[in-house]
C-alpha cells in the first residue's frame, strides 16, 4: 500500500474550547475525506530542517477540504505549544491522513452506540456525534464523559443541547459542580450500567482509563469484540 502523502494545510479558523484547548480548522486542498474516529499526523518543520510530528484525532465528520482538530496543550511539549500559542489564521502546516479504520463509526450503522470518553479522548467521539447529526441518523447514542473538573469539558455549549436520541452523562474525578449527585472519583462499573449489552462501544482516553472502562464493560456482559478502544499516553506534546 502506498504511503499517505503529506499535504499543505492552511489554518482558517480557531475556536477556544477550554483554557488549555482549542479547535483548529484547516483547509487542505485535495483532501480525500475521512470517517468519524480517524486521526491524522501533523508535521512541523523548522527553518534548519528539523521536523517533528504528532497524531491528532479528527473532531468533525468530512466537510469537503476542511479538517477540524481539537488540540490540548501539553506543558513543555514540542508540537501543541506551537499549534496553540504561535500558529495563526493563514499559517500553514503539513497534515497526512486519514489514518485508522477500526475505531470508526459509519453513518449507515443503526446499532445503539455507547461512547466513553476520558479527558481529550472525547475528540473522536464528538466526531461520531456530529456525523450522526449530519447524517440524520436515529441510532441511539449515549456519551459518558469523564474529566477532572467541570471547566475541562470540551464542546460544552454544543453538548448543552443534545440531539434527539443522544444521552449525556458527565463524570468528574477531582471536583464536581455544587450539588452534583455523583461524588468525584474514577469511572466505576456502576457508571456504565443501565444500557443493553447489545450495543457497539467506543472508549477513548488515557491508557489506564480505557483499560478500566473496557474491563467494566466486559464484567457487565458486553462482548469484547464490540468494544473498540483508542488510547493515548505521554508523547511529548
From TrEMBL:
GO terms for molecular function: 2 iron, 2 sulfur cluster binding; oxidoreductase activity. Its cofactor is FAD. The keyword Iron applies. Pfam families: FAD_binding_6, NAD_binding_1. Keywords: 2Fe-2S, Iron, Iron-sulfur, Metal-binding. It comes from the Bacteria. Residues 4-105 form the FAD-binding FR-type domain. This is Oxidoreductase. It comes from Acrocarpospora pleiomorpha. The lineage of its organism: Bacteria, Bacillati, Actinomycetota, Actinomycetes, Streptosporangiales.
